[in-house]
Amino acid sequence: MKSKQSLGRNLPIGVFDSGLGGLTVVREILKQLPREHIIYFGDLARLPYGIKSKRQITEFSIENTEFLLHRGVKAIVIACNSSASAAGNVLRKRYTIPILDVIRPAAREAIRVSVKKRIGVIGTQATVASGAYERILRSFDSGVRVQVQACPLFVPLVEEGILSGSIAGSIVKQYIKPLVDGRIDSLILGCTHYPLLRSAIQKFVGPKICLIDSAKPTVLNLISLLSEKKLLRKSRGKGKLSVFVSDLQQSFLKIGERFLVEPLRDVKVVRLTEVATVKRKWLA
Amino acid sequence: MKSKQSLGRNLPIGVFDSGLGGLTVVREILKQLPREHIIYFGDLARLPYGIKSKRQITEFSIENTEFLLHRGVKAIVIACNSSASAAGNVLRKRYTIPILDVIRPAAREAIRVSVKKRIGVIGTQATVASGAYERILRSFDSGVRVQVQACPLFVPLVEEGILSGSIAGSIVKQYIKPLVDGRIDSLILGCTHYPLLRSAIQKFVGPKICLIDSAKPTVLNLISLLSEKKLLRKSRGKGKLSVFVSDLQQSFLKIGERFLVEPLRDVKVVRLTEVATVKRKWLA
Fold this sequence. Notes:
Helices cover 50% and strands 16% of the residues of chain A. In chain A, helix 3 crosses helix 4, helix 5 (103-113) packs across helix 7 and helix 9 (165-181) packs across helix 10 (198-205). The first copy, chain A, has helices at 4-9, 23-32, 54-71, 81-94, 103-113, 125-130, 132-140, 154-160, 165-181, 198-205, 215-228, 250-260, 272-283, and strands at residues 13-17, 38-42, 75-78, 99-101, 118-123, 145-150, 186-190, 210-213, 241-245, 267-269. Chain A is globular, with a radius of gyration of 18 Å. Chain A starts with a helix and ends with a helix. Chains A and B meet through helix 3, helix 8 and helix 9 of A and helix 3, helix 8 and helix 9 of B.
């Protein structure tokens, strides 16, 4: 008979995002923790979150978390900066399961690599309005100078597949120039969509500014946490990735494959009413 | 004692959209029908619709319609092309109340003004994928040549307030050039956000191509319909505009005022759960 702990080890890791940008984090989990099972939920019916209110994003994030809990997961990664900045603390207070997000690991990495302690952060309107990055960066180093910039056109650009060329270049310049003028030496890509614009951004800022993508530091954090709680899966077999979405649009799947850098198989649609039912059941 | 009909006359006109673009239609109702009361619902929590599936847009549209019906309206205008093209016919079959949308009036106007019968249509991905404009235009004139183009970056551009300048210009050029090359002589702005990009588009296409905004023909259609059903409000007093939204983001209200071209007062937030409750009540 298996012990409770070994059962826990074999449970999947839950990951959610407003859309499919969070698959950049899944990609890193697949690389670094290939034995783990993963359940991903992308709220395609109600995306994007980054232009919505804190209250609304929190409500959606609770529903997403409860959907994952209902399916049985051993830990949850909030792979969406807007969701993490609006609801990360609310979710951690509400549930006992380990809940990680992409903000703290990216901030710690920025503090580690920044020499001049001048850090730029780009993100959605919701992430920028929350002030989450400034608070966490200053909690690590009170002397750090932080400059933030909302980039509302970046998500639609990525979803349109416009990752280079003159239109992408002009929009990158418009948003990033104030940060370069402010002499940052490192720049946090504070949205899981932005790694796809990495080349266009690096081209504009030049080689001296270090770009920080949250996926790798988040997964390193996940490894420490699972290891500490003795929840790493020991099996030799490869883990299974299951992808759930609240709406299915073929064009989105193509974008999803860009984030994951491999074909997206086994995508299941959960209706919003089902997510809501799960919520009611969970709270009942 | 007032007759049933005079009570009906005094009910508001219901208007809904995924966001606040539909206020371009409200603006035209205020101009042409200043005595009418209007209830507007903008689904800010779940916008945009144009990148979502037909099934999902239909579900949202049914909820929005039921929210308006529950508040008591004498007619409904679907002031959202994505919603109209995905769900217009479903809604008209489902309810007995008059339900108008922005597609048929804009198509009729295009047929009226086009000399060469070469009509271009721009819209969201959902509107273009539905084929609604081609079907309706061909039902009016089987010989018409129709060229459609999805413009997914236009909505975020408008919401960002980037209505002119080099970025807007390059994006307009990228989407509209194939239509100009196809020698259209009139162009339907098939999304209630697009009138705000009218100058940028007209600048690119030149003065010979006629741009068609659905607001005016839609309201002319609304007037005929209300008049025919003896539902025009007779009172001398000015009508009242009530605006409901499913999420409240301050930046959106500023954009809303651009659509309405006057201050947005009296905006109330309805929670999505309330919309869903209304739905359940209605169907019970």
